[in-house]
Amino acid sequence: MERDGQRTSIWQATVKPSTVQIDNHSLSANNKYDVVIAGAGITGIVTGLLLQLAGKNVMIAEAHTIGFGTTGGTTAHINTFLDVPYYQIAKNFNEEVATEVAKAVANALALIKQNVNQFNINCEYIEQDGYLYAQDEKQEEELQKIIASCKKVGVEVSSCENIPVPIKFLSAAKFSGQASFHPLTYLFHLADIFSKAGGTILEDCRIIDLEENDKTVTVKTSLDKTFIAKDFIYCTHIPPGTNVLHFMSAPYRSYAMAVKLSDENYPSGLVYDLYNPYHYFRTQEIDGQKYMIAGGEDHKTGHEENTAKCFENLEKYLRENFAIERISYKWSSQYFEPADGLPYIGILPSYKKHVYTATGYGGNGMMYSHIAAKILTGMITGKSSGHEDLFNPARVKPIASFSNVVKEGADVTLNLLKTILPAEKIKGLDEIGNDEAKIINYDGNTIAAYRDEKGHLYMVNPTCTHLGCTVGWNNEEKSWDCPCHGARYNCKGEVLTGPAVKDLERYTQALPVDKQ
């Protein structure tokens, strides 16, 4: 399967062939559905399944393929302690909110376990302990605050003297009842069940415009098909177009490796240090083969000029602490940090009552995706999950003009504007080597140019089609990444991940500029 980057994750390399019915032709009568969902990642598939089993007629539209986005690049930690500690949530909101978040997380874990057992999914789901350790006095203070706040909200935790990784530490905590699994195996099984239950999945179908009416939503797609839905949900990690949530969620990239250890000392548990950004470790067994999955080196999307350095730093750290035999896979992935520590799940600001979203998961996508599925299903079916108010995006006040900005932005055609450039006159092109990219100037215009390993040159306008920021080259994933709101494009300028829905302007060449 493909993913939104050049690097191959362990999940996409090992997922079994899917039997999911993908149907871009045979659709519901009059193209009408109870619910249309954008995005076939873990949030979209789990939500779609819950709604379909609740009696709704659901269609999931995916701009690429199932699991193409962050679900294909996660490290799949199922944990009850969060990146934003409960004491910080209590500080940002109050103790009652922190306790309710912990309950929602526990419900999400229960839903994952229920799905695995009920549908007999062989996705290497394993329950295990989690560990958090401190390596200096400041971290020890942080750890004690985390332990105290976890106990206060009902998360089972205790101090411990040993951790399952060969790293020196001063103190540590153990969390019971954590878990891990193969996320894509889980995802494809649920997608298959959704399809067999009567749900529809469309791949290569991007949502390009919405119009909310009193009772329905008109959904325009890149397939030149228009659908009518009673309700619509953006499960795209960040909604496309322009919305206040783009200014309340910061895009980040995280780096991961799956490695083989020569001493077979694979960690039995989910393990995290307390640095910022933190390192994390766990073991995954696939077809009898064990791998240690490790990650870290997070940074804001588009703010790191040399992304190869992030992999180098992570590898250096791992080799200093583990007996690395070989690095089998390495990849990066994207997530969005919410401004106040909690995700935004519910009615999308600028819409009234039929358009929903789920975004701002931070590094806890496995948990918040299932929380979102339960909340959104409850809101649409009228059966409350009890957590709707907790994650309500309405806590962020929308800007009055945003509804018009969304409409105007969606009206822009998706057809590429091709501009003929006299390639031999563009200074700087000859300086670009194979597998290199540069931002260059030509006659007052800025051009983003990349020459692939075979010498073919691709030239695009570096102005992000979302809100006009200038993209930067990601030399590891071979993508143009926006540093403002996280939109990403491949070397041809085609959208990989939103919030952009329009490709970068592409320049053609009057003369061949391939290097022989």
What is the total tally of β strands? 26
Q: Helices and strands: which structural class? A: alpha+beta
CATH top level assignment of the largest domain: Alpha Beta
Average pLDDT level:
87
CATH-derived architecture of the largest domain: 2-Layer Sandwich
Give the helix proportion (percent range). 10-25%
The CATH topology of the largest domain: D-Amino Acid Oxidase, Chain A, domain 2
Radius of gyration from the CA trace? Answer: 23 Å
Poorly predicted sequence stretches spanning 5 or more consecutive residues = 399-426, 510-516
Distance between the termini: 31 Å
State the major sheet.
9 strands, mixed
What name goes with the CATH superfamily of the largest domain? D-Amino Acid Oxidase, subunit A, domain 2
Please give a structural write-up.
The protein has 516 residues and is of the alpha+beta class. It has three domains: 28-73 and 184-247 and 341-410, FAD/NAD(P)-binding domain; 77-181 and 249-338, D-Amino Acid Oxidase, Chain A, domain 2 (2-Layer Sandwich); 419-509, Rieske [2Fe-2S] iron-sulphur domain (Rieske Iron-sulfur Protein, 3-layer Sandwich). Helices cover 23% and strands 30% of the residues. The protein contains nine helices and 26 strands. Strands 3, 4, 5, 6, 11, 12, 13, 14 and 15 form a nine-stranded mixed beta sheet that branches. A hairpin with a 7-residue loop joins β16 and β17 (355-359). α4 crosses α8. The radius of gyration is 23 Å and the shape is globular.
